[in-house]
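Working notes for the structural subgroup meeting. M.R. asked for a predicted model of this chain before we commit to crystallization trials. I am recording the input and output together here so anyone reviewing the notebook later can reproduce the run.

Input as submitted:
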Amino acid sequence: MPGPLDYCIWVLCTLLEAGVVVCALTRGSFRRYLTLNMYMAASVAMSVGRYFVLSHYGFNSNQYFYFYYYSDAILTICLYFALMGLYSIVFEELGAGTYVRAFSMLLLGGTALFTYAVVHQAQDRMVTRYVAEMSQNLYFVGLVLTYVLWGAVLKLRETRARVVQFVLSLGIYFSLYAANYALCNLYPNVGPLLSYLPPIIGTLLPVAWSYAYLRFDEDARFAPARLAVIPR
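Returned structure, recorded in token form:
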């Protein structure tokens, strides 16, 4: 059963995520970064839904167990599309948005099929295991794609401050989650000690995105010298 600290982190993270949506609306940037803001809105909705299920059915209930894993998978997919939205923004001047969307759907489908093939070989073929494995695989895919996107940002000399902030924060977020998954898999006995890491990590992304909305205008740009210079 979650303790007082768990509830405090839960409430804090939910408020921070709601704050991102409010900042985007007040700054007139909700539609510009639609996939990012929809992910935050979905995260708030899922958090409220989890609390509703938890309060009505209990922490150890099947209802909460299934709702938690399915909602986590939905949020992971939403975050994946948020990343693809950043790809479209970075490559929009090259007119490659259609190719990015097609590639993202193929990669998402490939990840889902790969996960199914792995889980299908196991004797325990629970749907929840498939959902959990797919979420974990998408985090690692997202990690790789974020670093690829950062390479593109440097190569194309992208200087839009908000875009750079979004990409950097996603890179840190995916890296921390991937490290947490790896530690849990390598050292399952220390899993309880790492249980507080995901909620704490979850607060970093909304803080970074709110900062990007509040600190930078849409036209704000970094000086090229502040980014690594990579020759074309």
